[in-house]
Amino acid sequence: MKANNMTANEKRLATMRANLESLEAAAGALLEKGENMTAAERAALLEMVNIAYHDSGKIEGAASIDGSASCDFCMKMRGAAEENILIICGMCYAAADSWKEAAWRRHKLNARILSSVLFTKEELASIVLPSDITRINEDGDVINVTHARNILRIIETHGNMSRFGFWFKNHAAVAAGLDAEGVHDNDEKRRRYNARFVQSSILIGFPARPQWFSDVIFTVYPDKETTLEAIASGAHECNGRKCKECGWNCYNARKNAEGLQHVAEYLRTNKAKRSAVMEAYTAKKESI
Ligand code: SF4
Predict the structure, then answer these.
(1) Which end is more exposed in the chain, N or C (fewer Cβ atoms within 10 Å of the end residue's Cβ)?
(2) In the structure, what pLDDT confidence band is assigned to residue 228 with cuts at 50, 70 and 90?
(3) Residue with CA at minimum distance from ligand 1 atom 6
(4) Comparing C-alpha atoms, which of 165, 151, 220 is closest to residue 198?
C-alpha cells in the first residue's frame, strides 16, 4: 500500500514494524559476532533488552523483564497442552492474539539476547530498573542456563534497588543457572537474591513438586470450589487481584524465612473450556 493512502493507524503500525525490524537486524548482526563483540558492542546489545514499566494491569507499579512465550520451552509446553487440557500453557495469556505485536517481538528479542550472551555482573549492573519491584517473566520463561544466569545476575546486582518475583516453569534451567553461579543452598540464595522464586505449576489443580530453591508454588485451580479448598488448606489467595492490593506477596523475600508458600489462582476461561478442564481434573484426581 502506498504511504499516502494509509490511515493514521496503518502509518503508526508501519513505523513500529520498521523500527522493530531495524532493531532486530542490529541485534542479529551483533549476535553473529559472538565472542568477537567489543565491550561497546556488548553494551549496545544489552541496551536492546526491553524492560517494561507497568502503569496499569495486574502488576501496576512494577517493572518486568520478560522472556517470550514464543521460546522453544513455551512452544513445547503449548504443544503438549494440545494432548492434555490440564497443562496450563494451553491457556497462556501471553500467547493470546491480543498480546501486542511490539511487546511480543521485543520479548522474543529479550529471550534471544539473554539466552545467547552471558553478560558479566558489571555489565548487568548498568541496567536501570524503573521500579523498586520487578517481575521476571510476566511473559515467557528462562530458556537455558545462560538465560537463567543473566537473570540471576540482574537480581543479584540490583538487590538494593528492587525486590524481585522470579516466575518460572522451566526449573531445570533455573537449577542449572544457580549451580553455575555457585548457589547450592537456600542460605546462599537468600544472601544473594532479594527475590522470591515462584515456581508455576504446569497442571491445573495440581501443585508442582517444589524444587529446593522454590519459595512459592503458584497453582491455577479449575473452579471456585477447588480454589477455595486450596485456600482453606493454607494457600495464599491470588485470584486475579492486582499485586499491589495483595501487598506484593510474591515479591516479598522476607516471607521466604517462613518456608514454602502455596498460592492459589482461579482459572479464567469460558464455560465450555472450564467444564472440559473439570472433567479432566476429576478423572486425574480419581486415578491418583
Ligand atoms: S499472590 Fe499477590 S503478588 Fe502473587 S501474583 Fe497474586 S496478586 Fe500478585
Answers:
(1) C
(2) very high
(3) 238
(4) 165
pLDDT > 80? residue 1:
no
Going by C-alpha positions, the residue among 189, 191, 233, 195 that lies closest to residue 212 is 189
Which protein residues are within 6 Å of ligand 1, measured from CB? 236, 238, 241, 243, 246, 248-250, 263
pLDDT tens digits, residue range 34-64?
999 999 999 999 999 999 999 999 999 999 9
> Cα-flanking dihedrals φ and ψ of residue 236, to 5°?
-75, 140
- Give me ligand 1 centre to Cα 38, in Å: 41
Owner of C-alpha cell 523475600: 253
* pLDDT tens readout for residues 146-186: 999 999 999 999 999 999 999 999 999 999 999 999 999 99
Mean pLDDT of the chain, nearest integer: 94
Calpha distance 156→248 (Å, rounded):
19
Dist. CA 9 → ligand 1 center (Å): 35
Gap between the Cα atoms of 1 and 89, Å rounded: 37
Residue 106: half-sphere exposure toward Cβ, Cα within 13 Å:
19
Residue whose CB lies within 8 A of the most ligand 1 atoms, among 238, 239, 245, 262, for a mutation test: 238
Return the ligand 1 atom nearest residue 242 CA: 7
The answer, yes or no, to whether residue 3 has pLDDT greater than 80, is: no
